[in-house]
Write a structure and sequence with these properties.
Elements (H helix, E strand, L loop, with lengths): L1 H19 L2 E5 L12 E3 L6 E3 L7 E5 L6 E5 L9 E6 L2 E5 L6 E4 L25 E4 L3
Antiparallel strand pairs: 1-2, 1-4, 3-8, 4-7, 5-6, 5-8, 7-9
Amino acid sequence: MQFTNAFLATSFLAFVSTVSAGSVNFYNSKDATCGGSPSLEYRNLGCNTCIDPAGDWWGVQVFDINSNQRISVHNQDKCTSASQVGQWYGNTCAKAGNTALRSVWIACAGQRLANGTEVANAGENSADNDDVTFVALD
C-alpha cells in the first residue's frame, strides 16, 4: 500500500506541473512573428507569472496553455496594469502595433470570480487593444 500512495503522490505532482506549464516565444521582427524563428524562448513556465525579458519585442507567441488561461501583453516592463495592450485566452500570437511589447502575463486556469468577472493580476483593471494585432494560430 505504501508503494501505491507514493506512486499516486508522484503522479499528482507530475500532473500539476504539466498543467501549469506554458511557453512563450518573443520575436524581434513583426514579419517573423509566429511564422519564423523566435529570437528568445521561455519553456515550462508556471502560471501567474510575468515574463519580462530585457529589450523591445515586436511579436509574442504564448502556447502550451489551456483555453481557460488568460494572457495579457504589455508595452512596459513588469506587466503593470497601465501598460496592458492586449488580452486573450489560450494559445495566442500577437504582433506589436506602433509600440514594442515588453512583457507578458500568464494567469492560472479558471481565474474568475463567482460573478464571472476576471481576477485581475497585479492590479490590472482594463486594457486598450488598439496597439496589438491578434494573429490566429492554426
